[in-house]
């Protein structure tokens, strides 16, 4: 762990035409069979993927039969894979899902977070309301964990779903054991040997090599190397995300914009501290990247550039990705002051 020495510059920040800052990073693109398609930097150094692996963490929700048992919609499945902005549609979807489980926001163990979208935050405050766990960007993922807990709850004895679910964020809880197994199955890594921390939403997070993370997303994009039930679960989650991309992020969010434009051609997910993971099913590829200083702006630019290079979209989709790969920077007056520039191969 720690910062990689000798990591390449992957994104530059220009003020005018002069380089003001440089973002170092690493990138792995892997075939479903395991071969590297392209790589920059150290792709074998473990990194914490954070929220970039939410789709992997949602696999047991579907493979276990819980999604069918509770008749989950595409919007709910997409929300289970989301880092959403806490907008009204996100909150309402999570609240309705919990109600069907016979639970409330009090059962969520992700913590309270104010909405990430400023107009929503201001409107909430103007009404004299306060944020709660439903506004947390991970509330959908945690609804999925609670749903899985309700499904796994013993059908005999005195066990009640709410009681069984309590403490579901702990590594030894049956829900987290299922999530850990899904991560091990897709990445091919033994998580008992991986560095472990606590994520922002209180669940365990494991440091894994970018090569292994990219392999996991190649597998969930193709089903290759996965048991049939897990491959089916992965395909269902990808379809749900493609049908309801707003639930994954929200208004003006990178993931939402890109997946609205590309549909099932790209399933991508941001993680905190400059991480991105993605599946490119038609190419049989998975992708994982890490920006050393944790800058999300650099991670988004790099993700957009790789999508351009690999998928070669046309028309409005190409225009969108070119804009996201080289975003223009403005000052507080709205004056253009610079831009980002991806520097792969330089």
In a nutshell, what does this entry contain?
With 346 residues, the protein is α+β, with helices and mostly antiparallel strands.
In what range is the share of β-strand residues? Answer: 15-25%
Assembly context of the chains: single chain
What order do the helices and strands follow?
A: EEEEHHHHHHHHEEEHHHHEEEHHEE
| Tally of individual helices | 14
- Kindly, what is the distance between the CA atoms of the first and last residues, rounded to a whole number of angstroms? 26 Å
Weakly predicted, low-confidence segments: none
Mean pLDDT across the residues is 95
Biggest beta sheet summary: 8 strands, antiparallel
Q: What's the count of strands? A: 12
Q: Evaluate the radius of gyration.
A: 20 Å
Please state the structural category: alpha+beta
Structural features, described:
By secondary structure, the protein is an alpha+beta fold. The mean pLDDT is 95. It has 14 helices and 12 strands. Helix content is 42%, strand content 18%. Strands 1, 2, 3, 8, 9, 10, 11 and 12 form an 8-stranded antiparallel beta sheet that branches. A hairpin with a 5-residue loop joins β5 and β6.
């Amino acid at each position: 762990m720690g910062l990689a020495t000798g990591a390449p510059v992957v994104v530059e920040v220009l003020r005018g035409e002069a380089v003001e800052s440089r973002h170092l990073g690493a990138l792995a693109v892997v075939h479903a069979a395991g071969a590297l398609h392209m790589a920059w930097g150290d792709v074998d150094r473990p990194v914490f993927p954070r929220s970039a692996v939410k789709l992997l963490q949602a696999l047991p929700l579907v493979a276990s039969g819980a999604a069918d048992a509770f008749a989950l919609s595409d919007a709910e499945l997409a929300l289970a894979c989301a880092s959403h902005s806490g907008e009204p549609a996100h909150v309402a979807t999570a609240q309705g899902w919990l109600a069907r489980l016979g639970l409330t926001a009090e059962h969520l163990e992700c913590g309270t977070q104010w909405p990430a979208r400023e107009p929503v935050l201001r409107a909430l405050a103007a009404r004299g309301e306060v944020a709660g766990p439903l506004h947390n960007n991970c509330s959908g993922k945690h609804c999925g964990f609670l749903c899985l807990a309700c499904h796994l709850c013993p059908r005999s004895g005195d066990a009640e779903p709410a009681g069984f679910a309590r403490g579901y964020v702990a590594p030894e809880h049956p829900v987290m054991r299922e999530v850990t197994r899904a991560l091990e199955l897709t990445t091919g890594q033994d998580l008992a040997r991986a560095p472990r921390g606590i994520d922002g939403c209180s669940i365990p997070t494991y440091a894994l090599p970018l090569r292994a993370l990219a392999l996991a997303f190649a597998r969930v994009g193709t089903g290759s190397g996965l048991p049939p039930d897990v491959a089916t679960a992965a395909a269902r989650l990808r379809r749900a995300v493609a049908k309801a991309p707003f639930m994954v992020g929200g208004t003006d969010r990178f993931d939402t914009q890109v997946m609205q434009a590309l549909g099932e051609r790209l399933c991508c997910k941001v993680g905190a501290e400059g991480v991105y993971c993605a599946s490119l099913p038609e190419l049989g590829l998975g992708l994982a990247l890490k920006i050393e200083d944790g800058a999300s702006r650099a991670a988004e630019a790099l993700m957009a550039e790789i999508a351009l290079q690999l998928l070669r979209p046309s028309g409005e989709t190409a225009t969108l990705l070119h804009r996201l790969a080289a975003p223009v920077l403005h000052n507080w007056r709205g004056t253009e002051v610079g831009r980002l520039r991806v520097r792969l191969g330089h």
